[in-house]
Write a structure and sequence with these properties.
Elements: E1 2-5, H1 16-30, E2 35-38, H2 48-55, E3 59-66, E4 72-80, E5 85-89, H3 91-94, H4 112-123, E6 128-132, H5 143-148, E7 152-154, H6 168-171, E8 174-176, E9 185-190, H7 202-206, H8 217-235, H9 251-256, E10 261-265, H10 266-273, H11 276-281, E11 285-292, H12 302-312, E12 316-322, E13 333-336, H13 347-362
Parallel strand pairs: 1-2, 1-11, 5-6, 6-9, 9-10, 11-12, 12-13
Antiparallel strand pairs: 3-4, 4-5, 7-8
């Protein structure tokens, strides 16, 4: 029997590649004759470009950059020199996973470190950046990235505003572009379609998750509006808010003023790049999973998109997840994992044990 092992990340507990390894090894213990194709998946969320780089067997280039609060951290990008393309995730050095709960503060956190990595890739000859937007710690409109690429943001006296300073966005009065400007275009991969502004926008929906206090939401939005006006004036472009401009704190919104930017929903783009459909065709059962499969999963999440392709080719599907999946999921088999207490020490270890145990009891 041919099985395709293609889980998404179990957010907060197990990365997609590790989950695939756990599932695959457990199945082989129960079914030694099974033929496995292991292909962890992503949908624009945290780690998408990491998985792409590994799947495409690209060179991984390691560089030191700054984390969301300005501390040195090991970063990397994947290089495709033949296509003059680099793949990197915002979450690698500007991710919320780098911060303790008390360190989350969008008034200070910046994507500057991601800009540093992009600049180093550009210096290596890259002209196209594939940027995974999931898992960011910031709501800075990509201003940190722009600063890393040589743009200067000045206060009312024309002085450069130090990166990672409190209230950076609120202090901006002038913008200077680098000469020459880096020759770059961006493809931004995301797993949400939120606008930047509005009741379902980046600030009210994702801001509190990143440390923004409820009483600060209105002021933060006003400061972002003023920053966008300055970027519009500097670039000569007038941009309307659009779907997915709210992803990763508005990174694509800010970059679009100064560079060519395309936004792609990550799952379909990822699947096309790794030729997942051919792997589905040669498999009997497709096994996928994610931390919590729910009503939002149908809006472009990896497991849902994989299900659509499996159904297209008449393949049986298994979903591994937690929570109340509901009968509408349409998977042939659903394996439910026990709910975790994320306040309990060692919950990551428990999550791995739960996953292996669930596979053992279901196959």
């Amino acid at each position: 029997m041919n099985l395709l092992i293609a889980p998404n990340a179990f957010k907060g507990t197990i990365d997609a590649d590790e989950a695939a390894e756990i599932i695959g090894s457990a199945i082989l213990e129960k079914m030694p004759d099974a033929i496995l194709t292991v292909c962890p998946i992503a949908d624009g969320g945290d780690g998408t470009c990491f998985l792409l780089g590994k799947a495409l067997k690209l060179e991984q280039v390691f560089e030191i950059a700054l984390d969301p609060l300005g501390r040195p951290i090991q970063g990397f990008y994947f290089l495709d020199p033949g296509q003059k393309t680099a793949y990197l995730d915002v979450s690698t050095v500007s991710g919320i996973k780098s911060l303790m709960p008390y360190e989350k503060n969008p008034w200070i956190t910046s994507t500057f470190g991601t800009g540093e990595l992009i600049k180093k890739a550009a210096d290596a000859g890259t002209e196209h950046i594939i940027l995974g937007l999931g898992g960011s710690a910031t709501v800075d409109l990509g201003i940190g990235i722009l600063r890393g690429l040589g743009f200067l943001f000045l206060d009312e006296k024309g002085r450069e505003i130090p990166v990672f300073s409190e209230g950076f966005i609120s202090k901006i009065r002038f913008i200077q572009s680098p000469i020459p400007k880096p020759n770059l275009k961006f493809t931004c991969l995301c797993d949400v379609n939120n606008y930047f502004f509005g009741p379902s926008g980046a600030i009210p929906v994702f801001g509190p998750q990143k440390g923004l206090k409820k009483e600060d939401l209105e002021k933060f939005e006003n400061d972002c509006s003023k920053a966008l006006e300055l970027m519009a004036n500097k670039s000569g472009k007038q941009l309307a808010d659009r779907e997915s401009f709210g992803a990763a704190g508005g990174i694509a919104f800010g970059l679009t003023f100064f560079f060519p930017v395309e936004i792609e929903m990550g799952a379909k783009w990822f699947f096309e790049k790794i030729s997942i459909e051919s792997k589905i065709k040669s498999s009997d059962i497709i096994i996928t999973g994610e931390g919590k499969y729910d009503s939002q999963s149908a809006s472009g999440k990896g497991s849902f998109e994989l299900l659509q392709l499996a159904r297209k080719h008449g393949k049986k599907t298994t979903l591994i997840t937690s929570g109340d999946v509901g009968k509408e999921s349409d998977f042939d088999q659903v394996i439910l994992l026990p709910e975790l207490d994320f306040g309990e020490s060692g919950f990551e270890i428990k999550a791995r044990k739960n996953l292996k145990k669930a596979i053992f009891s279901s196959f």
